[in-house]
Amino acid sequence: MRIHRTFEASITNPRQVSDDLDQLGRAASKLWNVGRYYAQEQWDETGEIPDDGELKSELKGHERYTDLHSQSSQRVLEELAEAFNGWFTKRRNGDSRARPPGYRKRGDSHPRSTVSFKAAGFKQDAQFTRVRLSKGRNLKEHRSDFVLCEYELRPDVDLSEWDIQQVRTVHKYDEWRLHFVCRKSIDPDPPGDETAGIDLGISNVAALSFGGESILFPGNALKEDEYYFGRKKAKCDDSRSNERLRLDRKRTERRTHFLHTLSKHIVSECVERDVGTIVIGDLGGIRDDDTGESRNWGKHGNLDLHGWAFDRFTSMLEYKAEAEGIDLTVESERDTSKTCSACETKDGTQRVERGLYVCEECDTVANADVNGAENIRRKVTPSPSEDRSNGWLAQPTVHLFDRNEGRFAPREQVVDCKP
Ligand SMILES: [Zn+2]
């Protein structure tokens, strides 16, 4: 099995390389515009948009093409062709508001586009954590002119375990960063053949059911961050937009860290319990809906409620599970919140009150999110025998995010003694 990852690194010698990277990034925008202009001409003349092959062969003699390494220039034109294709697809699907890709220009200047360096365009020096990026003939001041970036990765990332396919220079948050696009082959055995179900939500970010045991992950840490950063931002007046930007960035980093930690934690809980398959609820058309209209998120509420997209979490979980040999299956969430996971009744006589699911048919009381997670799990694994106790449905273990430790840990269980 082949797995892919992109690792982001910060550049530790920005003063030495920023001007060069600016020049390359702007050159990529100019080449994009050259390609865009050529495509327009062809379109007006023939009614057809050239594909990436034609763009490359027609423009490879162009001065702007030779600003960048040939592979980098090819990639810019491929991106342009992909952008046109994306637009066609949207139009074909009836999205009349979709627009063709535009020119990359801001007033008289050009934005700093991402530049990709494929195998022949970069040379990594792992020992000194440097990478050498090639310029095009046109921008070289002498034969062996290149950009030598020194970088720093997250401490847990070891690039020597990977084949680096591409290096990208990405301008964001007002600075240049490197993306290492990597791949490697692994073949892990699954930990076992148990199945776990996951229900994603707002108040509990995730409910995890192993069928007989369940864990809840409340979203407190996310909520606290929303509140904290919301207040901080409200205090900034308009003259301090840099401060706002910094706060947004900080909040995004914290959220990403939370989601990474959560997905890692869930996978390790699954490994411990011999899980070979994780079933996760499909949030219905999130990826397919490209009209940009507000979507029906049902019980999940607004996409922006936590400011994070559930599908991003699913993909984080998927690659972490994959690395342990665990399959991730996405199943429709239809009826999973209405059905009783103990007796499978879904006639609408069940109630959900204060997070509890109560079944009139079999008298089961369950945590509503655990009930959902168990129903999702059942989509892949058949029901257990009927005489099995289902008390666990009402008594999930709660794992909370500990900000100081940066990890999830079980909270002392508060047992409700009332009958
Ligand atoms: Zn029931």
UniProtKB/TrEMBL annotation:
Q: What segment(s) does the record annotate as region Disordered? A: 91-113
> Cytoplasm: is it a keyword of this entry?
no
Residue ranges occupied by any Probable transposase IS891/IS1136/IS1341 domain in the UniProt entry: 186-284
Which GO BP terms sit in this record?
DNA recombination; transposition
> Which InterPro entries does the UniProt entry name for this protein?
Cas12f1-like_TNB, Transposase
Pfam families of this UniProt entry?
Answer: Cas12f1-like_TNB (PF07282), OrfB_IS605 (PF01385)
**What is stated as this protein's family in its record?**
In the C-terminal section; belongs to the transposase 35 family.
Name it: IS1341-type transposase
Q: Which organism is it from?
A: Natronorubrum sulfidifaciens JCM 14089
